[in-house]
Design a protein that fits this description.
By secondary structure, this protein is α+β, with helices and mostly antiparallel strands. It has 4 domains: 212 residues, Rhopdopsin 7-helix transmembrane proteins, CATH 1.20.1070; 51 residues; 82 residues, Helix Hairpins, CATH 1.10.287; 158 residues, Histidine kinase-like ATPase, C-terminal domain (Heat Shock Protein 90), CATH 3.30.565.10. 64% of the residues lie in helices and 8% in strands. It is built from 17 helices and 7 strands. The strands form 2 sheets. It has a 5-stranded mixed β-sheet. A two-stranded antiparallel sheet has the order 1-3. Helix 1 crosses helix 10, helix 7 packs parallel to helix 8 and helix 13 runs antiparallel to helix 14. The two termini are 52 Å apart. About 2% of the residues have low confidence.
Length: 532
Amino acid sequence: MSGAALAFYPLWAASLAVGFTAWRLGRSVGRGLVILCFALAAWVTGLVLLVATQSVHNASAASISVADRFIPMGMVLAGAFIHAGADIAQIKDRRIVYTSYAVAIAVAIFGAAFPRLLYGPGVRGAGPLFFPLAALSIAGVLANKLWLFSLIRKCTGPQRSRLLVLLVANFAASIGGGGAAAIRVLDLAPIELSAPFLLLSIVLATHAVVFEERGRSRDVLVQALVYAVLTALFSALGLTLFFKLLPHLSPGPQIAWIAFVIFFAALPLDPMRSLLVDAIGARMFARPIALDVLTREIETKEVEREQAEGLAELGRLASAVAHEIRNPLGVIVAQAKVLEKQGASAEQVAEIRAQVDRAKHFLDDLLRFAKPRPLALRELDVRSVAGLAASNVRQAMGLTGDGPFRIEEGSPMFIEADRSAVLDVATALFQNAAIAVSEQPDGHVIVAFNDLGKTIEMVVTDNGPGVPREIESRLFQLFVTGRGRDHAHPGTGIGLALATRWLARHGGSLRHERPTNGGAQFIAVWPKAAAR
């Protein structure tokens, strides 16, 4: 009997853990799956009570145990599966949900009130209504599954996958639920044989709970379940040791002394357990949900919110500035044409046009930085886009041949990204590098790619003079540039800031390193799957 109970205790704990986790964190899970997890836990509770009762040989024929009254509550599982399916398929008409719950609860209450009409003591031996109710239950179970199957045929994508998981969980729960009760009543096999089917149902229910979550939300759900297991492990070990030592720690057997010792001994246990669980979580997960990590994320989000508010203000300012400056620039271009027709110096007119183009380019970059557009994500070859960026830079700078660029050849390297964003990043890095080596007799820019599994690095290295040390700490900030107005190619200080923004929106990063042999090296890290 104790061995049978041990087979169900882990299932009971797991189903409750998933249920509480879904209730607490699974905002998109839906109430149906949460109720389903708790209904599974309730059914396993009934089985634990059942295997813990006296055997039928030692029980009085008139006695009714708690398990005898509790077992019929398993009928609620049928309603919970209907509810979960309706939530996943987003069915607004809830009449079938209410009807299934009403029938299940009515049968459960009837069975709890009159268990001897269904089975004998210890849920053994068929009662007068067992077979009629079993026939009705089988018909209801088949209707339940056919209804879920009809939903699968109507739905597509993630909904269909979740419903398919739910249908398989339904089959497993039917064997471990009503099937387990039948084999117990008819004495066909040990009831603990239902444990693997219930385990499968709980695992599939867990998958259905976590499946809908995305990104950080899914990480939190999965880690919460792992942390629950770790917490249970350490609590079991700690409390076992504590209660073993309690008789030796208490000055006397009085309740007051025992409560006094338990309070002060237990006070440091939870912080110690949290420390151990967080330490293990930090090794298991890239982004653990430990308190210090979550605190840093909250602080980061607050900084990002303040930056977003600043950028929104900058966007409004940039729009106003662009509107006020573009009209005068148009007039200047028109007057330059008049001067050209009147015989003005071609060099002077060209200089006017160059400065107007520079001002327009600055306004365009400022607007792109201050008013970012939504990402248009698609799969693309980063090598191919880098080649196009190099060609554009050569054309813009009037370079011939391959120019200073030496792009590493190799097989395509695909990432999920916005093509214009990748082109902007590559163009900014290539243009800065080409300008840096433009006065070097053997100036060159090497572009290499590294596949790091989940990310791809684009490494741009030049042998120019390098980044001035006085601006290195502020290099990726807006309006920071090492090329002043007197430079042959004056900088705006927007290109690297814009590139950093594009990469951050994809979940990547941009960093600068100093090669040992001089020059500059910029490393753009693109995730293969963009952050959403």
